[in-house]
Amino acid sequence: MYGEEPLFGLLNRLGRPAPNHRPWPRHVTDRAGWRLLIDHLGQNNWSLLGLWGDRAADGLSVHAALREDLSGDVGLVSLPCPDGRFPSLSAVRPAAIRLERAACDLFGLTAEGITDPRPWLDHGQWGLRHPLAQTPTFSTPPTAPYPFLKSEGHGLHQIPVGPVHAGIIEPGHFRFTANGETVARLEERLGYVHKGIEGLTRGKPVLEAARIIARLSGDSTVAHSIAFARAVESALALTIPPRAVWLRALMAELERLANHFGDIGAICNDAAFAFMLAELSQLREAVLRAADACFGHRLMMDCVIPGGVFPDIAETGPKRLLDLTIELRRRFAPLVAIYDNKASLQDRTVSTGIVNTGLVNRFGAGGHVGRASGRGLDARKSPGYAPYNDLEFEVPVLTEGDVNARVWIRIREVEQSLSLVEQIVRRMPGVPRGPDGITPPPLLPMDHILDHAKAGGGGEGMALVESFRGEILTWVRIAADGTVERCHPRDPSWFQWPLLEAAIEGNIVADFPLCNKSFNCTYSGHDL
Amino acid sequence: MFKHILRSLTGGPVTEAAPAPSPDGLAELAGLVDRAAKARLGRSLSIRAVDAGSCNGCELELHAMNNPLYDLERFGLRFVASPRHADVLLVTGPVTKNMADALRRTWEATPDPKWVVACGACAIDGGVFAGSYACLGPVETVIPVDLRIPAAPPTELLAGCWLCWSAARGRVATKTKNGRNHSFRPCHQNTARPNQAASGFPPKPRPALRRQRSSFRTTRPRFRANGIVGGPVASNSARHRSGSKGRRDLRAHPRAQNRHARLHPTKRGRASPAHDAESPRLRRQAFRRPVR
Questions:
Q1: CB nearest B53 (choices: A131, A166, A195)
Q2: Of B3, B61, B135, which is closest to A195 when you measure between CB atoms?
């Protein structure tokens, strides 16, 4: 029975596909169908890509996105919840727990049988309960403190950390229960940077919504922007200029390079080897300056928008990027050798913070966390998107699952990204010049997008995009007037944060910064 | 690695020259550096970065300021791990409601004198997040803000911090969005009782340092998790006044003061006789209560 039924076979049995949903089908089912889905999830190893609440004109509903990893098939299932309740997926997919808790906080959708009913994003400070529901209710700050999970035993003590941390990092609370130096349990409490992004994007024109999504997580602004833009373009069945597709990939790879350089340096720094941070932060700076010279912004924020890319790469950009890759290769290789040969550094990273393959698969974690533990999935390969189908690159996979493996995944990805940047710069379609010599930007005119929205009566779209952390899922519903009705960006960190709790168990408290940095999950992208 | 180190030693530092302060920042700070206060901080300023809901973009650029190319510490500006060691709170993000309490408590934990710098568009006016059910918007809705740095690239930040340092040496008038004059100055100078300021009589000039400090009490509002709790609070300096005679000689020289201040985070050592000789006009200004 295991993995016997293909995903689409079951989805077709569950219900009819909704119209205007692209590029993958969305099947609307009923409670019996949803329960059947839960049964099948228990027997198959389909990954849960996301689960989110929705409020349309006809009431509340919940959507789940699934993928059959081997074939790369992706499908969505929707369950209308007129009474605001749905059977929980948390028993068969533990990654669903926090997603369901968030859906409850935002929409008031109750997951029946959820293994953890505590609030997640809602700290009781908004003055509102269920802000995205039909009728939000007023609320007052809670009187009782948040109930952390209990750890009892001889000699256990608690160490609360955060939300304001010692370094220049984002806020979140960590509750350690330690036995001497050894961590017996870590529990995370996030949601401190919840900005209400899903609420803010509602009713906004796509370009305005794109500006908000670009500020979802500053380090993966390009990837989130690409995911949103591609979801909108799918929803409205738009075809963007080919040059824009290539420029997007170029920006995404520059972003990956910059972040990986920063991360490798910071991990070494957390192991008290500041030399690597000093050297690698210079490489990171070189990438950011090149990005600034090419696209006018160091982080390339707001450069990717629905319909294409704005601005086009600067005229000197391609030459500068090719020089940059040569320079980076020359400077990066000796640093890798230093990392590999320093016994004191290896002593900290090898066999620290191990996540095993089973756990990574159960939570469907992607990115360097998944790939360091034997889960070699990459949205650029499967399901794949342009222009990566035309480019040559490998997805590095290791099985050790420790901090060292996550560093090596990054090192290998840097090498792949350098090669990708070169390939993209060399093979990118040229600039189409008009007869009068004016170069149009690789961007669809806004009128064209609005016309498409009006002609098609809006639509729903989803995109999977590989950020430097892993795959981003973005789902949108666009109204006929070209405004965003619902946008749900799901950052890869949703499936990586829970694994950090597992990774630190049995390690010493002093190794937590090292583990945390090797995961480098986002707070802002997760808290929305 | 030794080759690397040798090259760094022979090749000279990669650190670049400091940028000129941006004209915008200059306009906001409007010059006016007070020589008398120069000795208070010497050339050091400890910054505590607080993310109050930022997208992490500002944090990335704050990190960049620490890299060898920008090397913030060469100016005596450094990021510290605890608000208790900080002179400046550098706040980013459109203060989320879930972070407001933590931000307020961080501000409380920072000893006087202290400044608050709002960094980035979100911290200044809420940016694209203004109007969200989960955000409070500008930092000044929670704690008083002394300086605003609008953009996040490191060169701008560096220029902003550079200004911050020059401003920290003295009093710099700044103008808020609503036209009110903000004084860029340490909170502990707000020794004038509000009723005294309101009475219209100029307060008596302070005759001597020690006498003045003996009546050093503020009516600074205290925050608790669920609102403002008013009432006079003994300042750090007042609390530590007794039994500190032996330290006075440490304050004789500006350099020594500086070291003293680092060793004693209560910052008693930073108060110099010079600051007490400042014009009474300064003391007349009532403490700005944070807008709630």
A1: A195
A2: B135
**A 503-522: CB under 8 A from B:** 522
pLDDT of residue B42: 60
3-state secondary structure of A437: coil
Residue type present at position A262: G
What does CATH list as the number for A7-138? 3.30.460.80
What CATH number is given for B15-188 in this structure? Answer: 3.40.50.12280
Please report, for chain B, the start and end positions of each structural domain, with discontinuous segments joined by +: 15-188, 190-284
The reply to whether A128 touches chain B by the CB within 8 Å rule is: yes
Contact A69, A28 (CB under 8 A): no
Closest partner residue to B134 among A194, A284, A334, by Cβ?
Answer: A194
CB contact under 8 A, A200 and B128: yes
Interface membership of A171 toward B (CB under 8 Å): yes
What is the per-residue burial (b if ≥16 Cβ within 10 Å, else e) of A394-421?
Answer: ebbbbebbbbbbbbbbbbbbbbbbbbbb
Intervals of CATH 3.30.460.80 along chain A: 7-138
The bridge status of strand A26-28 relative to strand A47-56 is: unpaired
End-to-end CA distance of chain A: 38
The CATH number of A197-527, from 1.10.645.10, 3.40.50.11890, 2.130.10.10, 2.30.30.40, is 1.10.645.10
- DSSP-derived letter for residue A381 is I
Scanning every residue of chain B, which has its alpha carbon at the shortest distance from the alpha carbon of A280?
B67
Q: Is A187 annotated as a binding residue?
A: no
CA A229/CA A211 separation, integer angstroms: 11
For residue A8 the two structure tokens come to 């689409």
Q: Which two tokens stand for residue B217?
A: 């009490």
CB atoms closer than 10 angstroms to residue A131: 23
Secondary element (H or E) of residue A319: helix A317-341
Cα–Cα dist A337/B197, whole Å = 67
Residues of chain A within CATH 1.10.645.10 domain(s) are 197-527
Predicted complex ipTM:
0.90
Tens digits of residue pLDDT in A168-222: 889 999 999 999 999 999 999 999 999 999 999 999 999 999 999 999 999 999 9
- The answer to whether A60 and A498 are in contact (CB under 8 A) is no
- Give the C-alpha separation, A324 to A313, whole Å: 15
